[in-house]
Amino acid sequence: MIRALYDWTLRLAAKPRANYALGAVSFADSSFFPVPPDILLIPMVIANRRRAWRLALICTLTSVLGAIAGYVIGAALFEQVARPILALYGYSERFAEFAITYNEYGAWIVLIAGLTPFPFKVVTIASGATSLDFVSFVLLCTLARGTRFYLVAGLLYAFGPPIRDFIERRLGLVFVVLLVLLIGGFAIRYFA
């Protein structure tokens, strides 16, 4: 089954509309959906290494747009939904303390989460809910996500054929590692 999924993804990567799918997944990952764009980025670069930089740019731009959407979701839904619930239970002051602490370390949080497999949407929504400085937020998202996607694309560009051979020979192992990273990101979210 894993082999069929891998082959399907490689076929999708060669289609003309693959860039749109990559952009959509990258946007959704930063705002509301728990699927990292690497799932498409990696096979798309492997399928055609000459497009590596363009694909990294698509991921970066759509991820930043998704982060902005996540920020808006956090800001809008917080006022409409979360604030009344916090007030009902007497946690308004605690949230105010959390927001101060979050904003104090917000730059580091955005940078670290943007570079790792941690679910980025959690950070984008929290940034909006705590009113993290918007301009700084966008700049940090651009830096972190750009670094991540260009690094992945660059490594695949530089070492494409050996990496493709490695992935194809050890597809089960690669799948397990990616799954562990994905689950690890969710575990960090819930237990950190």
Low-confidence stretches: none
Sheet with most strands: none
- What form results from the Cα inertia axes? elongated
Mean pLDDT: 81
Q: What's the assembly state of these chains?
A: single chain
Q: Share of helix among residues? A: over 70%
What can you tell me about this protein's structure?
The protein has 192 residues and is mostly helical. The chain has helices spanning 2-13, 18-31, 38-47, 52-88, 92-115, 120-129, 134-169, 171-191. The two termini are 34 Å apart.
TL;DR of this structure?
The protein is mostly helical.
Label this structure with key terms:
single chain, 192 residues, mainly alpha, 8 helices, 0% strand, DedA_domain
